[in-house]
Structures are given as structure tokens and as C-alpha cells.
TrEMBL record:
Origin superkingdom: Eukaryota
Domain (Exocyst complex component EXOC2/Sec5 N-terminal) ranges: 13-216
Function according to Swiss-Prot or TrEMBL: Acts as component of the GARP complex that is involved in retrograde transport from early and late endosomes to the trans-Golgi network (TGN).
Subcellular location: Golgi apparatus, trans-Golgi network
Any one of the GO BP annotations: Golgi vesicle transport
The family this protein is said to belong to: Belongs to the VPS51 family.
GO CC annotations, alphabetized: cytosol; EARP complex; GARP complex; membrane
UniProt entry tagged with the keyword Transmembrane: no
A Pfam family hit: Sec5
Record's subunit section: Component of the Golgi-associated retrograde protein (GARP) complex.
UniProt keyword terms in alphabetical order: Coiled coil, Golgi apparatus, Lipid transport, Protein transport, Transport
Organism: Vanessa tameamea
Name used for this protein in its record: Vacuolar protein sorting-associated protein 51 homolog
Entry-linked InterPro entries: Cullin_repeat-like_dom_sf (IPR016159), EXOC2/Sec5_N_dom (IPR039481), Vps51 (IPR014812)
């Protein structure tokens, strides 16, 4: 059997109920020193004195409370006695009053009946007097334009006239009142057709005509027609200030005039007519609101309203009013159009943003073009120009994205809406994609018009590199920046993934077009020099060679200038061969240049797509130029000295062009082909020794 908690209490606990003083004292003497025993004694004495003091205080307090309670009870006993006496007197007085009231009622009963009869007679006389004076009152109220009072007086007396209209004394009054009311109806209809009539006056007139038993169908048509005429006046006024007022002024006037009156018209329509099917009102409201939306779009497109802050403030005021109007009209089309207005404003702002970026970028390109034309490739730092263009473009796009985030402010009525967040996200991506696509189209256009517009080839290289940089990192960077801004401005907003691949394809295509155009331009420039120099010379009467011709130096300078520009922007993937590995093309026997050997040689694609590195660009231009040399050589006939002059030119080109990082195999193959063709077309095919050619080239 378990022991109770009380039995388990410690007998050594001085505060417990089972405390054993002898056991405690015995334990204390055994375990404690003399000093500890004395301290414990002092502690017990102090606690005992404290408890005794507390006990005395409690006794004194309870005694005082007991004394106060005794006095309170004694006082209440005396007060209850006084109240009992007063209640007895009050009951006696009430009984007396009741008896006096009964006596008075009995005495005045007959007099009260007489007074009631007199009051009924008085009311009847007042009604008869009102009926006899009704024509005069109606005419007076109509003359003072108190149409409401006139209708109320007539409707008030109409029941009496209908009841006693057969009496001769009332027939003339009824006839006269009917004529007056017909004139009043005519006046109210004329009032409805007046353009200056306010919306409240329209509602008042319709309400009075309804009280005069006019049908609802005719009144609805008249009411809406008159309201439309009045609202047209506001529309014309708003249209007149489209070109002069800013968006805030226009919206303020639109809200306070047209939309305010439209709200009054619709509210009055609901109050006046029980049109549960809502047949006429939605069509009327949609027609008016469509014109308002068109005017608002014209206001937004004005140059004075392109500022984001003023546009958002005006749009917010307009949207708040449209929300209130949609609740009044109960039309989904107005509500949807209000959302569409905000979305269209966001799209319009995005369009302005990327058009501005495009314009500024064109201005920067024009300055770069002028700078390249004045300084040349040798003095211009193409890498610095590229970085400047790329940084400017990225900063402008990022600033535009941040500017569009203003449409997601918490204080705006549409700022936290999911549809608004999606519209802003789409608009931001439109800015990014359209900017880069326009950049791509601009580069393609400049590439196609390079020769006719004298566009520097360095500019094409810069634009091609810019497109490649934007393709590799720019598109991803801007997309990540957009997602970060959306997360900060609208946390939790789910955005559809954007298609960055299409933009990258545009950039890649534009870059390839620019590179191909630059390669063809440089190659054709050098090819034209070589073509003219070969076709215009009489190679059968050529003198003994004294050095390379001047055209070879100009060709080398042209190709070297392009190679220098490419080396600033594009990496080199092919290292030039060392001098020890080079071989001269004339060290081979003439039989190696036979047509049979050329048949089995590797085919060279002259106009293949240019690669995005220095060697590929140089090789591309080189192929175009030297292929033109080969074809022109095949059209001429050479003497021995003419062949040797071409040998010197080829050797000079090999020496100079092989130092530019070109593919030496490609270079030697084309030069071999040119010299082999000359040998075949030569009447006395004798080449000079390699050492002699070296001396002539060095001396030249």
C-alpha cells in the first residue's frame, strides 16, 4: 500500500507539518559545528521575531476591518428605515393621483369627443380649400420653377379629384388641373432636351414625369439620349485640352466632370427605373467609356507625359475612378477596359524606353564612327570603345527596367495586382528583347550597306563583338537582373520563363553577318588592288624585276590594318609558324605545280562563314584577295621577266602576310596556285633562284 504524501514529508523540514524538533536538534548537533549551531540559533530567533511581528500586523488589520464592517452595517440599518418611510409615502401619493386622473377623464370624455369631431371637420375643410386653390398653386409653382412642389400638390389632390370628380363643383377644377399638368409635362420634356441641363436636373425631370404616369420605356430612352448629349459636351471639352494640358490636369477634369456626371446619370437611372435586365444602360456606358479611353490614350502619347512619375500619378487617379465607375455600372467590359488601360500604358512606356535606348545608341555609334574616321585604327582603342558601348547599353536597359518597376509601388491602386506584375514583367522583357533585336537588325543593315555608306570596317568588328558579348553574357545578365527587380518589387509574383534563345539567335546571326561583311570588304578591297594591277599591266613586255610592286605593299598594309583591328577584339586561335618551319614555294620543282596535283589538293572555300577569332578573320580576307589574284593571273600571258616579277611579288606577300597569324598552309596554297598559274601561262617559264628573290625583296 502506498504511503500518503503527508507521511512522506521530511520530519527535518522546519516548515513542514511533520517537523520533529528533537530529531532536528539531534541531527544539527551531530552535523554542524558550534559556530554553525550559533548561527542557526540566531537565524531561528530572527525568523521567529519576524513571524510574530507579521502576525500582530495581520491581527490589527483584521480588527480594523471588523470595526469598519460593523459601522457600515449599523449605518445601512438606519438608511433602510428612512427609505421604507419614503416608499410608503410615494405609494400613497400614486394612489391619489390615479383616482384624480380617473375622475378628470370621466368629466372630460364628452368634451374630447366634441374636439375630435371639430378636428375632423377642420381637416376636411383644409382639404377642400386645398383642392379649390390647387390650380392657382400649380400655376404659381410652375412659374417659380418649383416643379417638385407642383407635382407633389397634384398627386396629393389627385385622389380627392378622382373620388369627387363627378360633382359639378369639382369638374372644372379637375379639367383646369389636367391642362396645367399637360403643360408641365411638356415643359419637363423640353427641359430634358436642353444640353445645359445637369445630371441631377435630368434625374429630377424623369422622376417627376414618372410620378405623372409616364411610361418607363419612353422615359429611359429620353433620359439616356439627354444624358448622352450632355456628356458629349464634356467629351468635346476634354478633347480640346488634349494638346494643352498634362495628364494630371486632364484626368482631374475628366474625373470631376464627365465621369462624375456619368456616375450621377447611372445612379439616377438605377433609382428611377426598375430595369432588372439592364438592356440599355451597359451599351450606353460602354459607348461613353470607349470615347474616354481613346482620349486618354491620346493624352498618354503626348511628349509632355512621357515622365514615369507624372504618368503613374495620372494613371493611378484615372484607374481609381474607373474602379468606382465599374462598380456603379456593373459592366465587365468597363472593368476589363480599365485593366487594359493600365497594361497599355505600361506597354507604351516600355516602347518609349527601348526607342530612346535605340536612339541614344545610334548617336553613340555616330560619334564612334566619326572618331574612327578621324583617328584611324592605329590610334583608336577598339576594346575601350567596345566596353564603352556595352556598358552604356547595359546601364540604359537596367535603368529602363528599374523605371518600369515604379508601376509596382504599394501605394498605387494597381501596384500589387498579379495582372499588373505580369504586365510589367512582359514589358521589361520587351525592353530587353526589342533593344537587342533592334541592335541585331541595325548591325545587319549596316553590314549590308557598308560599301555604299563608307562604314569603317573597325565599326563592324566592334558591333560584331558587341553582339557576341551580349549573346554570351548580356542576355543572361539582363534576365537575371529583371528577376531580381521583380522579386524586390513584387515578392511572391510568379513569372513565366522568358525565351532568351530567340534573342541570342538574333545576336548570333547579326554578329556573323557583320564578320562576314568585314571579311568580304577587306578581301574585296585588297582583291580590287590586285585585280587592277594584274589586268592593267602588259606582262609580255615587263622589265626585269627590281623589287616588289607598290600594289603589294598597299595590299599588305590593308590586310595588316584589318588584322590589327581584329587583334584588339578577337583572340588568336592559330599561332604563326616559326621561321625554321617555313618553306618557300619556289623551292619546289615546276612539276609540282601541275594541274594534276591541284586536282587532288584540298579545296578552299573562299566565301565560307567567318569565325569569331583573329586568325579566321585574317584568313577570310586573305582567301578573297589571293583567290582574285589567282583568277586574274589565269587571264594573262607572261614573259620570263613577267613571271619573275610575279615571283618576287608572291615572295614579298608570303613574307609579310605570314607574320600576321594567318594560316601558313592556306597562304602558301593560294600563292602557289597563283605562281603555278603564271608558270602555265608563261612563254618562257624560268623562275629565279630563291636567294636572288630574297635579295631583290630586301633591297626593294
Amino acid at each position: 500500500m502506498a504511503e500518503s504524501p503527508k507521511d512522506n514529508e521530511n520530519p527535518l523540514d522546519i516548515d513542514g507539518s511533520n517537523f520533529n524538533s528533537e530529531m532536528y536538534l539531534e541531527c544539527l548537533l551531530k552535523c554542524a559545528t558550534l559556530r554553525q549551531v550559533m548561527d542557526k540559533e540566531a537565524e531561528v530567533v530572527t525568523q521567529s521575531q519576524f513571524l510574530q511581528s507579521e502576525m500582530q500586523t495581520l491581527v490589527y488589520e483584521n480588527y480594523n476591518k471588523f470595526i469598519s464592517a460593523t459601522e457600515t452595517v449599523r449605518k445601512m440599518r438606519s438608511d433602510f428605515q428612512i427609505m421604507q418611510e419614503e416608499m410608503n409615502k410615494l405609494s400613497e401619493n400614486i394612489n391619489n393621483i390615479t383616482s384624480f386622473s380617473s375622475n378628470i377623464s370621466d368629466n372630460l370624455k364628452e368634451s374630447g369627443n366634441n374636439v375630435n369631431r371639430l378636428c375632423s371637420t377642420r381637416q376636411l375643410l383644409d382639404k377642400l380649400q386645398f383642392v379649390f386653390l390647387l390650380p392657382t398653386q400649380l400655376n404659381k409653382a410652375i412659374q417659380e420653377n418649383r416643379y417638385v412642389d407642383a407635382v407633389q400638390d397634384y398627386t396629393h389632390a389627385q385622389r380627392v379629384l378622382q373620388k369627387y370628380g363627378n360633382q359639378p363643383s369639382f369638374q372644372s377644377i379637375q379639367t383646369e388641373c389636367s391642362e396645367i399638368i399637360c403643360d408641365l409635362k411638356k415643359t419637363l420634356r423640353e427641359r430634358l432636351l436642353t444640353p445645359d441641363t445637369s445630371a441631377s436636373e435630368l434625374a429630377e425631370s424623369v422622376g417627376l414625369l414618372r410620378q405623372l404616369q409616364e411610361t418607363d420605356s419612353s422615359l429611359q430612352d429620353i433620359f439616356l439620349t439627354c444624358a448622352e448629349n450632355r456628356l458629349d459636351t464634356h467629351l468635346k471639352s476634354l478633347n480640346n485640352i488634349v494638346d494643352s494640358a498634362d495628364i494630371l490636369e486632364w484626368v482631374e477634369k475628366c474625373n470631376n466632370t464627365l465621369l462624375a456626371d456619368l456616375g450621377i446619370v447611372i445612379s439616377c437611372y438605377h433609382d428611377l427605373f426598375d430595369d432588372k435586365e439592364m438592356v440599355n444602360l451597359p451599351e450606353f456606358a460602354d459607348k461613353v467609356m470607349t470615347q474616354v479611353f481613346h482620349l486618354f490614350e491620346d493624352v498618354v502619347k503626348r511628349p509632355e507625359n512621357i515622365g514615369t512619375e507624372i504618368l503613374i500619378r495620372g494613371l493611378d487617379k484615372f484607374f481609381r475612378k474607373l474602379q468606382a465607375m465599374s462598380e456603379i455600372i456593373s459592366s465587365e467590359s468597363v472593368s476589363n477596359k480599365a485593366l487594359d488601360v493600365v497594361i497599355q500604358c505600361i506597354k507604351h512606356k516600355a516602347t518609349l524606353q527601348y526607342e530612346t535606348i535605340q536612339l541614344q545608341f545610334k548617336e553613340n555609334l555616330m560619334r564612334v564612327r566619326q572618331s574612327l574616321a578621324s583617328k584611324g585604327t592605329e590610334c583608336a582603342d577598339l576594346k575601350d570603345i567596345l566596353n564603352s558601348l556595352q556598358i552604356h547599353l547595359m546601364q540604359k536597359v537596367q535603368a529602363s527596367l528599374l523605371d518600369l518597376m515604379a508601376f509596382l509601388q504599394n501605394k498605387l491602386s494597381f501596384g500589387l495586382k498579379s495582372w499588373c506584375g505580369k504586365a510589367v514583367a512582359d514589358a521589361c522583357w520587351t525592353v530587353i528583347s526589342e533593344t537587342l533585336i533592334n541592335l541585331s537588325e541595325m548591325v545587319k543593315k549596316m553590314s549590308s550597306l557598308q560599301a555604299s555608306n563608307n562604314i569603317p570596317f573597325e565599326l563592324l568588328l566592334i558591333l560584331a563583338k558587341l553582339c557576341l558579348e551580349m549573346q554570351e553574357s548580356g542576355v543572361t545578365t539582363l534576365h537575371s537582373h529583371l528577376l531580381k527587380l521583380l522579386e524586390e518589387s513584387a515578392p511572391g509574383l510568379s513569372i513565366d520563363k522568358k525565351d532568351t534563345n530567340s534573342v541570342m539567335v538574333h545576336l548570333s546571326t547579326a554578329a556573323q553577318t557583320a564578320l562576314d561583311s568585314e571579311v568580304v570588304f577587306i578581301g574585296q578591297t585588297a582583291a580590287q588592288m590586285l585585280r587592277v594591277s594584274v589586268l592593267a599591266r602588259d606582262w609580255l613586255r615587263a622589265p626585269e624585276p627590281r623589287g616588289p610592286r607598290a600594289v603589294c605593299r598597299r595590299v599588305v598594309e590593308t590586310l595588316a590594318s584589318a588584322d590589327s583591328a581584329a587583334s584588339q577584339l578577337f583572340p588568336t586561335s592559330i599561332k604563326p609558324s616559326s621561321d625554321s618551319s617555313r618553306r618557300t614555294i619556289w623551292s619546289r620543282a615546276p612539276s609540282s605545280f601541275s594541274p594534276i596535283n591541284r586536282i587532288f589538293s584540298e579545296r578552299i572555300e573562299v566565301f565560307s562563314p567567318a569565325g569569331a577569332d583573329r586568325a579566321a578573320l585574317s584568313n577570310g580576307a586573305l582567301k578573297v584577295a589571293l583567290k582574285a589574284l589567282v583568277e586574274c593571273v589565269r587571264l594573262r600571258t607572261f614573259s620570263r621577266h613577267g613571271l619573275q616579277q610575279l615571283q618576287v611579288d608572291v615572295h614579298f606577300l608570303q613574307q609579310r602576310l605570314s607574320c600576321m597569324g594567318n594560316d601558313e598552309r592556306l597562304l602558301n596554297s593560294l600563292l602557289e596556285d597563283a605562281l603555278a598559274s603564271a608558270q602555265i601561262r608563261c612563254v618562257d617559264p624560268q623562275l629565279m633562284e630563291a636567294s636572288i628573290v630574297d635579295i631583290i625583296c630586301e633591297r626593294g
